[in-house]
């Protein structure tokens, strides 16, 4: 045993034990999911606030991998009000995308499961569904009509062997196609393409994805997402792969369309500039938890969590000259073995004594501004 | 190859070497032939770089910005003689025309000019341990003797923030930021004077970006390096560069000191580009110039000024004749008809 094993090394025996355990757990979830004719009462719930489009309530999404359980989303609570844009910020691997995929129920099953918590989706007529328990056939109706998603990579999320028109038609036919003829659907597609600012919409209808530039493809993705007037649009890094000038066009487009169909946007990005410009509310995530949330003004004028402060300081800003960029020391903790104290403690330069205790509860700095940090336990806040 | 030879153009005035500049690029052109038809005849050219002129002072950083497809990367690669023959113009590195060197001379010249690639995930061989990736070139060029080799690699790795025990590991065991450090160490192991950084931080997270940028700046100070920093992230370019060049469709449309370019952008394209930068301040006033349409095809660029199809200040003259580079204030060059009479 002189050889030192790398961190996270597992013997074959341990690994087998974990797989067996995982199979047992995931089989339980899958069994519950595969039941037929689930009564509607099981997944209907009521919104805590009828002005919200979506409420995430203590959401836990875990991945049961052979190396151990990865708590990708570990107790996330925030809400998306109707007609507003909520920006979700964080580094890669912090659980931003998994949160949004949970809302779409697109988590890679069986090893990825929502193990706890509720996602309440407002259906508009006083009813609400708990997405965490909604069966698959009902989800088909919700996706597209109520929730839809714009993916990060316009290059890889369009199917290269189908024409643009067919790909948009498909969405309409699948989710909103009752009583519509082929011509109706085509007319709607052309209308959508025009709406997202494609001039030559008839021509583009017959083109293949490779014939379009990145910005155009992202417009197509937006057209697909908006095809059935969803109540909430999840935009997962919609402009990361694009140039600044194209980014400006796409953000403009998103903002205008959102107002046109009065839906909410959940904007996932790591670019604070995009957040400042687009969002009404901001949620900052770190290692699967929300560390700070508030209105865009709360976050930008009074960033409180050390991680938010570090994130803002580490990005160069045009017009503000600094000699050296701040860089957050250390790295994100191993997701399999999260510490039981504040996840940010090991990288934090503002630690107080209490930080060694259990993970800090969320406390309010103002009615809209909440932060999970021990620095604010004395003086400010009610705790 | 004969194809490439015949299309070399010589419509430029040669520059005289000025020792304060490590690199002088004069009217550099690089066209890629487009083949078509049954016999693969050349049916046209992609004018990736179409007349780029700038000088780079020793120990400074020049940022090169522009949309994707405007020829930033090709410029970087053509300067290093990495993409075959040039089509026209001059690249003078330390007083020598890079493209006139023999294979043997070029080999020794290569140690002086290095490149850091964009994607740290695909630019490292997955089958070589990190120590070998970093040290291979130094050994091949005979820079260090066999006995000192291990110590030398340790020193280079230490400079780039890597631990000596990382030497025996393979690239897949590292995170994105660590891999980019390996790429930097690989370039640095040859004691270069000039490094082309081709979007070195684009694939990294914000907090990792800051580490890598700081590392590049520290190394520059220590070894008096000269960088050509290619990026589409304008805020990063402003932070790291002393001079900035803005490219559009193979042309350098504006070029000058960073503060001049950012405080007083002259070319309409530069203005539009800078107004598109999202500012992380919700109260910031937005006076955005949104450019209509997309960048035209470089196979068949517009006549006259290449930007006239999207320009808000387009005049009749712009459609006819291409503007030439003019010095508006000391060290601030622009290629635009709006600034004709100086």
Structural account:
The complex is a heterodimer of chains A (383) and B (342). Chain A has helices at 12-34, 96-104, 136-145, 164-176, 182-195, 201-205, 214-226, 244-261, 272-278, 296-301, 306-313; strands at residues 44-45, 52-65, 68-81, 85-89, 112-122, 128-130, 147-150, 232-236, 264-269, 281-286, 289-295, 363-364, 370-371. The model of chain A has no long low-confidence stretch (mean pLDDT 86). Chain A is globular, with a radius of gyration of 22 Å. In chain A, the strands form two sheets. Chain A has an eight-stranded mixed β-sheet with strand order 7-8-9-4-10-11-13-12, sandwiched between helices. A five-stranded antiparallel β-sheet of chain A has the order 1-6-5-2-3. By secondary structure, chain A is of the alpha/beta class. Chain B is an alpha/beta fold. Chain B has eleven helices and twelve strands. Chain B has helices at residues 2-6, 72-79, 103-110, 130-140, 149-159, 176-188, 206-223, 234-240, 258-263, 268-275, 316-320; strands spanning 21-36, 41-57, 61-65, 88-93, 96-97, 113-116, 194-198, 226-230, 243-248, 251-257, 326-329, 332-334. In chain B, the strands form two sheets. In chain B, strands 6-7-8-3-9-10-12-11 form an eight-stranded mixed β-sheet, sandwiched between helices. In chain B, strands 2-1-4-5 form a four-stranded antiparallel β-sheet. In chain B, a hairpin with a 2-residue loop joins strand 11 and strand 12 (332-334). Chain B is globular and about 70 Å long. The interface between A and B is large, with 44 and 39 residues.
Which percent band covers the strand fraction of chain B?
15-25%
Approximately how much beta-strand content do the residues of chain A carry?
15-25%
Class by SSE composition of chain A: alpha/beta
What is the helical fraction of chain A, as a range of percent?
A: 25-40%
Let me know the number of strands of chain B. 12
Secondary-structure element pattern of chain A, one letter each:
HEEEEHEEHEHHHHEHEHEEHHEE
Largest sheet of chain A: 8 strands, mixed
* Largest interface: chains, residues each: A-B, 44 and 39 residues
What is the first-to-last residue Cα distance of chain A?
Answer: 49 Å
């Amino acid at each position: 045993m002189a050889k030192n094993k790398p961190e996270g090394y597992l013997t074959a025996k341990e690994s087998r034990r974990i797989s067996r355990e995982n199979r047992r757990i995931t089989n339980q979830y899958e069994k519950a999911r595969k039941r037929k004719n689930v009564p509607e009462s099981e997944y209907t719930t009521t919104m805590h606030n009828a002005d919200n489009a979506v409420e995430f309530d203590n959401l836990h999404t875990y991945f049961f991998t052979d190396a151990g359980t990865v708590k990708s989303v570990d107790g996330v609570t925030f809400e998306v009000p109707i007609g507003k844009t909520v920006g979700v910020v964080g580094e890669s691997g912090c659980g931003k995308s998994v949160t949004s995929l949970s809302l779409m129920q697109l988590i890679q099953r069986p090893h990825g499961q929502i193990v706890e918590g509720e996602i309440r989706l407002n259906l508009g007529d006083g009813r609400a569904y708990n997405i965490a328990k909604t069966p698959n056939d009902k989800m088909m109706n919700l996706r597209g009509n109520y929730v839809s998603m714009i993916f990060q990579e316009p290059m890889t999320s369009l199917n290269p062997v189908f024409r643009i028109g067919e790909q948009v038609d498909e969405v309409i036919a699948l989710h909103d196609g009752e009583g519509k003829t082929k011509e109706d659907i085509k007319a709607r597609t052309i209308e959508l393409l025009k709406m997202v600012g494609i001039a030559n919409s008839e021509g583009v209808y017959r083109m293949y994805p490779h014939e379009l530039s990145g910005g155009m493809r992202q417009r197509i993705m937006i057209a697909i997402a908006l095809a059935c007037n969803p109540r909430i649009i999840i935009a997962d890094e919609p402009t990361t792969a694009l140039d600044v000038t194209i980014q400006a066009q796409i953000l403009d487009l998103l903002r205008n369309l959102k107002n046109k169909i009065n839906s909410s946007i959940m904007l996932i990005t790591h670019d604070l500039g995009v957040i400042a410009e687009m969002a009404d509310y901001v949620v900052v995530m770190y290692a699967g938890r929300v560390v700070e949330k508030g209105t865009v003004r709360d976050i930008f004028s009074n960033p409180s969590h050390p991680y938010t402060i570090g994130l803002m300081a580490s990005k160069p800003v045009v017009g503000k000259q600094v000699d050296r960029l701040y860089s957050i020391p250390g790295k994100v903790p191993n997701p399999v073995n999260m510490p039981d104290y504040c996840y940010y403690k090991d990288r934090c330069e503002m630690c107080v004594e209490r930080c060694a205790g259990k993970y800090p509860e969320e406390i309010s700095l103002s009615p809209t501004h909440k932060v999970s940090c021990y620095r604010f336990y004395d003086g400010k806040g009610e705790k | 190859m004969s194809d490439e030879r015949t299309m070399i153009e010589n419509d430029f005035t040669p520059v005289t070497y000025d020792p304060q500049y490590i690199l002088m690029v004069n009217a550099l052109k690089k066209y890629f032939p487009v083949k078509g038809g049954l016999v693969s005849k050349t049916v046209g050219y992609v004018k990736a770089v179409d007349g780029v002129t700038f000088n780079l002072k020793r120990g400074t950083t020049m940022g090169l910005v522009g949309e994707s497809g405007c020829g930033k990367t090709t410029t970087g690669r053509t300067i290093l003689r990495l993409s075959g023959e040039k089509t026209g113009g001059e690249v003078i590195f330390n007083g020598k025309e890079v493209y006139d060197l023999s294979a043997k001379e070029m080999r020794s010249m290569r140690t002086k000019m290095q490149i850091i690639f964009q994607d740290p995930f695909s630019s490292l061989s997955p089958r070589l341990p990190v120590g070998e990736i970093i040290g291979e070139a130094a050994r091949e060029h005979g820079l260090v003797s066999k006995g000192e080799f291990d110590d030398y690699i340790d020193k280079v790795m230490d400079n780039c923030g890597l631990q000596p025990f990382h030497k025996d590991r393979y690239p897949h065991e590292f995170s994105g930021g660590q891999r980019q450090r390996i790429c930097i160490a690989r370039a640095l192991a040859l004691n270069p004077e000039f490094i082309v950084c081709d979007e070195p931080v684009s694939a990294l997270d914000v907090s990792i970006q800051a580490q890598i940028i700081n590392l590049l700046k520290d190394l520059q100070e220590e070894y008096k390096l000269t960088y050509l920093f290619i990026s589409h992230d304008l805020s990063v370019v402003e932070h790291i560069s002393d001079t900035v060049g803005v490219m559009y469709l193979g042309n350098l449309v504006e070029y000058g000191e960073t503060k001049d370019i950012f405080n007083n952008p002259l070319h309409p394209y530069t203005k539009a580009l800078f107004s598109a930068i999202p500012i992380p301040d919700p109260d910031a006033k937005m006076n955005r110039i949104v450019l209509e349409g997309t960048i035209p095809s470089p196979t068949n660029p517009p006549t006259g000024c290449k930007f006239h199809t999207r320009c808000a200040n387009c005049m009749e003259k712009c459609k006819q004749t291409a503007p030439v580079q003019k010095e508006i204030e000391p060290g601030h060059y622009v290629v635009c008809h709006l600034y004709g009479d100086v």
